[in-house]
Hints:
There is one protein chain. The protein is mainly alpha-helical. The chain has one domain: Na+/H+ antiporter like fold. Helices cover 75% and strands 1% of the residues. It has 13 helices and two strands, in the order βαααααααααααααβ. The protein has a two-stranded antiparallel ribbon with strand order 1-2. Helix 2 (53-66) crosses helix 8, helix 4 crosses helix 11 and helix 6 (127-133) packs antiparallel against helix 11. The radius of gyration is 18 Å and the shape is globular. Residues 1-13 and 322-327 have low confidence and may be disordered.
Amino acid sequence: MPSPADSGSDADSGSGADKAARRAVTVFPLLVLAAGALGLVAPGAFEGWGVSVPYLLGVVMFCMGLTMTPLDFQGVVRRPWAVALGLVAHYVIMPGLGWVIAHALGLSPQLAAGVILVGCAPSGTASNVVTYLARGDVALSVSVATVSTVLAPLVTPPLTLLLAGEYLPVDAGSMVTDILKTVLLPVIAGLVVRLLFGRYVDRVLGALPWLSALTVAAIVAIVVAGSAAAIKSAAALVFLAVFLHNGLGLALGYGAGKLARLGPPASRAMAFEVGMQNSGLAASLATAHFSPLAALPSAVFSVWHNVSGALVAAWMARSRKSPDGRKPSPSGD
């Protein structure tokens, strides 16, 4: 999750941020798609790499922490109602949709658990970049994404147990430990490093999004390679599930903002905070606790939600002015 920086007053600065953000949301899905294709055609090249997925996710989360500052938490204090609504919408709509879609499509236990797990994950790390492109409320987006990530160890495991337990055994306690180790601790470590060595970190901030993107691509390649044999028969059904999950999440998230009368910019932020998931975390947890096949929905989601997010953001941004002067630093996932 990138942290927006204070933008300059000149137009060129905003234009530069816009170009960087558009480049990220264009290149990242292509990179992940290429990685998935590589895992599919050469699964043997990634044999035995499954154990590295949690560590790779830790790298992504550490990079996320490096992009964060205390300013990212100020929005929670300034608008607790809006942030709370975003959190409730995220952790109610997406898990619920995952359960409904799994039942409606008659998914196998492994795939059903994988779809539900994606829904129970925190906000996607690219959600505030897409919100920026949509001329949405970036400050609200950052606040919701930050808090949803911090709360993930407390929320994701019990939700997964409640909704996916009917399909597969879920060790919620072990899942809490894994999220703490692979998400929360790396994020906190990155934030501490940023606070202590910000002057040096600022020099490499431009490289962090691409490091994150490459790492997520590696996760996708490993996940796809692990279930390459089953993909051909299940790919169409998985894509349909992901398409419905993401699309309905975006629509219902926007609807929640409108229903609460948050205003158009905040409603656009809500759409992406609800509809975009941390699919890297979901893939890591599915691989560790279920199977490589259960991680397949996460891999597909990782590609699709960036494509759909960019398309929806472009549609929303038509003839709409930016609601604030802050610009994000693009990132992946």
